[in-house]
Design goal:
Helices cover about 30% and strands about 30% of the residues. It is α/β, with parallel strands linked by helices.
Length: about 210
């Protein structure tokens, strides 16, 4: 089973529906025993980094997530979850989980469309992801596949973690990073149609093969 972390940051239900559509057993939970017993954890979210960190800290889930990663329990961050796995966010600003090295930054006001007009923020809609390194999470995903984005901030992880990149407004930013067993996507897998479904299925398959849940 996959556990979807419940920390009042929205979109957990849409992630659950996507997994159910794929026939993947899953539950939304903040119960640490249930989380620990899962084959893997999905850490989604939308909204404010500072508000999310407040909820995580008040429930001790910040410490739990660090312990889960330390015992090599597979973890997948999505959107806000992708951003607050890093050390800090300019949205606040706030110190975030610091599970992986890097920072989350606000898009500049100078982004431009190809025709020279202003590119709006948040970056919203379908866009491609170009991999600079192979990842088992993208096995079977077409290189021209599009994923769904909604975000005003972008991540700058440590260079060795950066795996996939996206272009918007004349700017190239990291949209997929991590290492085996610990990944993060800026795009919404649960809203990304077939491409997102393939990535979610690949994560579940990895969890079944490599789970270290206790």
């Amino acid at each position: 089973m996959l556990a979807i972390l419940d920390y009042k940051a929205g979109n957990q239900t849409s992630v659950l529906r996507a997994l159910q559509h794929l026939g993947i057993p899953a539950a939304i939970t903040a119960d640490k025993t249930e989380l620990s017993g899962a084959e893997g954890i999905i850490f989604p979210g939308v909204g404010s980094a500072s508000q999310a960190m407040g909820v995580l800290q008040s429930q001790g889930l910040d410490i739990f997530l660090k312990e889960a990663v330390a015992r090599q329990q597979p973890l997948l961050g999505i959107c806000l979850g992708c951003q607050i796995l890093l050390e800090s966010s300019e949205e606040g600003p706030v110190q975030t989980l610091g599970i992986l090295q890097g920072h989350c930054k606000k898009f500049p006001d100078t982004l431009q469309q190809p025709d020279g007009t202003h590119a709006p923020v948040p970056h919203m809609g379908w866009n491609s992801v170009v991999l600079e390194k192979d990842s088992e999470l993208f096995a079977g995903v077409d290189k021209d596949a599009q994923f769904y984005f909604v975000h005003s901030y972008y991540v700058e992880p440590a260079p060795e973690l950066a795996t996939g990149f996206t272009e918007y407004g004349g700017m190239r930013f990291c949209s997929f990073y991590g290492r085996p067993g610990l990944w993060a996507t800026q795009f919404h897998l649960e809203k990304s149609s077939r491409a997102g479904q393939i990535v979610l299925k690949n994560f579940y398959n990895y969890c079944k093969e490599h789970s270290h849940a206790v």
